[in-house]
Amino acid sequence: MNIKTSYYELVERDSENVSVAWKAFSIFFYFGSIISGICCSCTLSYFMDNVDGNCMLYSSLTFNTSILFNTTTVSFDVANSHWGKGSICNFIICVSVLSILCGLSWATFFMMCGRGGSTHQGLARPWRIVYPALFFNAGYSIVSIVSATFLTNGIETFCSNFIRNMHAEDCDQVSQYDFSYFASKPVDLVGLKVAELTAWLNAGFWMLGFVTIFIRCICAADFELVHVSTSEPVPGLDASQAAAKVADLPDTDTTTVSEN
What we know:
three-stranded mixed beta sheet, about 260 residues, rod-shaped, about 50% helix
């Protein structure tokens, strides 16, 4: 028989032939975004509670200092001090909380689905969640980077108040002072550094999740290329000769359709 047409078609790969690493890495990065989101939101909220719910980011503070019994006491000059906008802190906390909820949702979706490709176990065609996850990860990576940038710049502005007024070298030295303004509530500026670190980790996990799924799409890991050909019988060629001619075709994934 003669080959009439020949072409390649992209079809779903069998789930057993799809690497489980694609699913495992995605779930790992989602859980990373959950943990980092919890740490960032908790540490920032705790520090805000220590300053009576005020937002310390981008604040402009002045101090009055006094020395008594070799102890330096620092109090705020309330009249000349200005806290940062509460909307900035609320935005950063909301981004962290949403990261927890979204990361948990996407991790659940990926755990409910199989490896990918075509499967009869769990949800059918699990690759269908890959493309929505790709666009969501890309969008939330941008949001988390913006949030982490706001937090970093806000902390630098907050620390500059102490460096300028107390002549401290960095924020780490501020914890040695006794802040009478905060009454019995301790002030640990290390918590702000933890919030900053976990905010960038959160952004990193979303970006790594995006890169993983992007590579999965580029490699077409859930699909395979199949050679499809259509043929028609040659006049005067009996069945045994036709079968032998088909057997001489290249040994590849081929679907042959005969036309009578």
